[in-house]
């Protein structure tokens, strides 16, 4: 085997330590790297190794706790795993400003997931559609038998829907949607198993051929909603409100702006999803597909003034998260994060995450419509810049403070400050 080749036969059969040594050799890294990578922090090496393939170590991301949140009348601490400065502060800031008006009120459309079965080579697709619908009772029985545990917890098959799509190469496709209540699980594995169990029968009933059998990440039967009111007093008056409303409208009519606006929302959403061991990609894919559902990519939030002139914000987005399954149970930090939030159900977790997304959006819009994002964000980012410039220990705080004082949060300036500090 050539050391410069990425073809490393049997790599997956090595132990984690052996894999790391192999990577150090192939990538020509300094052997000191093994000390750093060998320290897996608060995720035991054997757990990391059982979670993914070809593991060589772990990567720690800070968890911050957002304070001030009141969700459905309950004070709630929010664990957020993120590498980005000012994200946690922004949630604290937004939540503080709506505490006096009651915090966040949330709701959920349900915990239904959709699995899709793709059927092709059917000459009479509309006929096939009805053939499938006629077998609803049998489909229910197969789905429920596939996951008796889910059934025990009150979940299982709820409905079947069939759509006919026209592919330009493949021709007519008959797409069956299995609608399944996955309760406290995100449900991907649960519904995928059901789709695979039902597919051969769909082929048999219709005479067609099935291809894909997989959940849809456009989880539009699992929408989490949150709303909150910020009084004019709390936000600093009408001009702040109007600036925020204009910022919202900009996002809602312009996809270039909406992408950034929604990225800001996902700063909060993904941080809680990650901290609780849930699937960030599933939530992100669902969020963006949902934002584009009207045919134009739009804002996930809506902002209005109420009859008293106060600012009201709302969010509604797919939130397929669970309390069991994925890494929610296997990652010890995820379990602690769930304990911090004290959530009792996947539904409550999803609703709380929606509230965090709304809070995040509030702070970003307020900063953008007033002082600009850089003032608050860069002040908090200054510590990162100090570390990038080589500051260590107490130097980090000193250099960061000086950067903020100068109003120039730049690495070259941090290096100058550090040199001066060190004499
Ligand atoms: C940064 C702040 C909060 C400063 O805000 P401020 O008003 O200058 O700070 P303050 O010192 O007056 O504090 C107000 C409250 O903010 C919180 N707060 C204040 N500082 C901290 C801190 N260090 N750690 C934790 N919490 C903090 C805290 O709750 C505090 O109240 P207190 O507890 O003191 O009574 C504000 O400017 C802000 O919310 N900015 C928005 C930041 C943001 O959105 N960051 C996301 C990254 S930028 C991005 O990726 C998304 C974006 C912006 O592009 C999205 C978009 O375009 O829509
Ligand atoms: N496109 C995507 O988004 C995809 C995502 N994934 C991954 O799938 C994982 C999530 O799948 P998921 O099905 O949630 O996980 P699991 O299969 O790990 O857990 C779900 C199972 O747990 C059991 N269970 C126990 N208690 C409950 C309860 N109270 N409520 C509901 N179910 C309960 C159920 O039955 P039983 O014990 O019989 O299993 C259920 O099927 C994530 O890791 C995700 O990354 C996988 C494929 C595709």
TrEMBL record:
Enzyme Commission no: 1.1.1.88
Gene3D superfamilies xrefs: 1.10.8.660, 3-hydroxy-3-methylglutaryl-coenzyme A Reductase, Chain A, domain 2
GO molecular function: hydroxymethylglutaryl-CoA reductase (NADH) activity
Keyword terms: NAD, Oxidoreductase
Broadest EC class assigned to this enzyme: oxidoreductase
Any Pfam family: HMG-CoA_red
Catalytic activity: (R)-mevalonate + 2 NAD(+) + CoA = (3S)-3-hydroxy-3-methylglutaryl-CoA + 2 NADH + 2 H(+)
Pathway where this protein functions: Metabolic intermediate metabolism; (R)-mevalonate degradation; (S)-3-hydroxy-3-methylglutaryl-CoA from (R)-mevalonate: step 1/1
InterPro entries xrefs: HMG_CoA_Rdtase, HMG_CoA_Rdtase_bac-typ, HMG_CoA_Rdtase_cat_sf, HMG_CoA_Rdtase_CS, HMG_CoA_Rdtase_NAD(P)-bd_sf, HMG_CoA_Rdtase_sub-bd_dom_sf
Family assignment from sequence similarity: Belongs to the HMG-CoA reductase family.
Protein name: 3-hydroxy-3-methylglutaryl coenzyme A reductase
Origin species: Marinobacter aromaticivorans
């Amino acid at each position: 085997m050539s050391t410069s080749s990425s073809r490393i036969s049997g790599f997956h059969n090595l132990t984690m330590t052996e894999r790391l040594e192999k990577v150090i050799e192939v990538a020509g890294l300094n052997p000191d790297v093994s000390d750093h990578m060998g320290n897996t922090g608060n995720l035991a090496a054997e757990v990391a190794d059982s979670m993914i393939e070809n593991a060589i170590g772990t990567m720690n991301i800070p968890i911050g706790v957002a304070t001030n949140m009141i969700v459905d009348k309950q004070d709630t601490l929010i664990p957020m795993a993120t590498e980005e400065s000012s994200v946690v502060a922004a949630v604290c800031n937004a939540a503080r400003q709506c505490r006096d008006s009651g915090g966040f009120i949330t709701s959920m459309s349900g915990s239904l997931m959709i699995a899709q079965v793709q059927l092709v080579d059917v000459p009479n697709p509309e006929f096939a559609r009805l053939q499938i619908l006629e077998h609803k009772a049998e489909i229910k029985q197969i789905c429920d038998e596939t996951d008796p545990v889910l059934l025990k917890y009150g979940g299982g098959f709820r409905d079947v829907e069939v759509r006919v799509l026209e592919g330009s190469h493949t021709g007519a496709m008959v797409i069956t949607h299995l609608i399944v209540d996955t309760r406290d699980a995100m449900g991907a594995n649960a519904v995928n198993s059901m789709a695979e169990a039902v597919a051969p029968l769909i082929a048999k009933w219709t005479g067609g051929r099935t291809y894909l059998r997989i959940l849809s990440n456009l989880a539009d039967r699992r929408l989490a909603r949150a709303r909150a009111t910020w009084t004019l007093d709390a936000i600093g008056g009408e001009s702040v409100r109007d600036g925020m409303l204009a910022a919202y409208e900009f996002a809602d009519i312009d996809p270039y702006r909406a992408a950034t606006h929604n990225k800001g929302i996902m700063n909060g959403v993904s941080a809680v999803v990650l901290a609780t061991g849930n699937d960030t990609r599933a939530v992100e894919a669902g969020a963006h597909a949902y934002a584009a559902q009207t045919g134009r990519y739009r804002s996930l939030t809506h902002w209005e003034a109420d009859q008293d002139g106060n600012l009201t914000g709302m969010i509604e987005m797919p939130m397929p998260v669970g309390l069991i399954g994925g890494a929610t149970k296997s990652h010890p930090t995820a379990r602690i994060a769930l304990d911090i939030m004290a959530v009792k159900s996947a539904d409550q977790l999803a609703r709380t995450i929606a509230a965090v997304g709304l809070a995040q959006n509030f702070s970003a819009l307020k900063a953008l419509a007033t002082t600009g994002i850089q003032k608050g964000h860069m002040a908090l980012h200054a510590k990162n810049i100090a570390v990038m410039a080589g500051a260590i220990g107490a130097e980090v705080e000193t250099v960061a403070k000086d950067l903020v004082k100068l109003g120039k949060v730049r690495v070259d300036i941090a290096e100058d400050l550090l040199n001066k500090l060190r004499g």
